[in-house]
Design brief:
This protein has 112 residues and is an alpha+beta fold. The chain is 39% helix and 11% strand. The protein has helices at residues 4-17, 40-51, 85-102; strands at 68-73, 76-81. It is globular and about 35 Å long.
Length: 112
């Protein structure tokens, strides 16, 4: 896994390119940089919202092709754009597999 500093650098480069910060109006998160994920259900809800799948698929409008997602390929993070639902579902499945592997306890240790 990459260090947080490496991820921060990549995110700063994306913002310089014109990417915008995430908006979480539908989930009740505030304007904070980090938000605690307190349960597996909340994690799945946030991921579904971010990837615009499941109940949040109607939010996947014309701008979904501009979203940049981080996908883990082995130990390296790959940033890519997805235009199709199945591509976003593949990222969701990868994240769920990683969550099973790492078994987070959600007691103040999982943040978005």
């Amino acid at each position: 896994m990459e260090s947080m500093r490496d991820v921060d650098r990549v995110m700063e480069r994306e913002i310089k390119k014109g990417s915008t910060p995430l908006q979480f109006e539908q989930l009740g998160f505030g304007d904070y940089s980090y938000n605690e994920i307190t349960s597996k259900e909340k994690l799945l809800q946030v991921l579904s919202y971010l990837l615009r799948i499941g109940e949040y698929e109607p939010f996947a409008g014309k701008t979904i092709g501009n979203n940049v997602y981080m996908d883990m390929r082995g130990k390296k993070a790959v940033f890519k754009r997805t235009r199709l639902t199945y591509e976003r579902n593949n990222i969701f499945a990868t994240i769920k597999r990683l969550a099973k592997k790492y078994k987070p306890d959600y007691e103040g240790k999982v943040y978005l």
